[in-house]
Amino acid sequence: MKHSPFPGYEAIRRKGWLAAHKWLLLRRFSQLSIMALFLVGPLLGVWIVTGNLSSSLTLETLPLTDPYLILQSLAAGHIPQGTALVGGLIVVLFYFVVGGRVFCSWVCPVNLLTDLAFWLRERLGLRSASSLPRYTRYLLLLATLVIAFASGGIAWELVNPVSMFHRGIIFGTGLAWLILLAVFFYDLLVSRRGWCGHLCPVGAFYSLLGTHSLLRVRADARASCDDCMDCYLVCPEQQVLRPALKSADNSPVINSPNCTNCGRCIDVCSLDVFHFGVRFDHSNSSRPVTNQTASPSSGV
Amino acid sequence: MSSTPTNAGTGKRNQSRRRFLLELGRSTTGVTLLSLGIGLYSQQSASMPTRAIRPPGALDESEFAAACIRCGLCVRACPFDTLDLARLGDGVTTGTPYFTARDIPCEMCDDIPCVAACPSGALSPELEDIDKARMGLAVLLDQENCLNFQGLRCDVCYSVCPAINEAITLEHIPNTRTGKHAKFIPTVHADACTGCGKCEYACVLEEAAIKVLPLRLAKGELGHHYRWGWEEKENAGSSLVTPDGEHRYNLPSGKRYDFAGEGLLESGE
Question: pTM of the full predicted structure?
Answer without folding.
Answer: 0.82
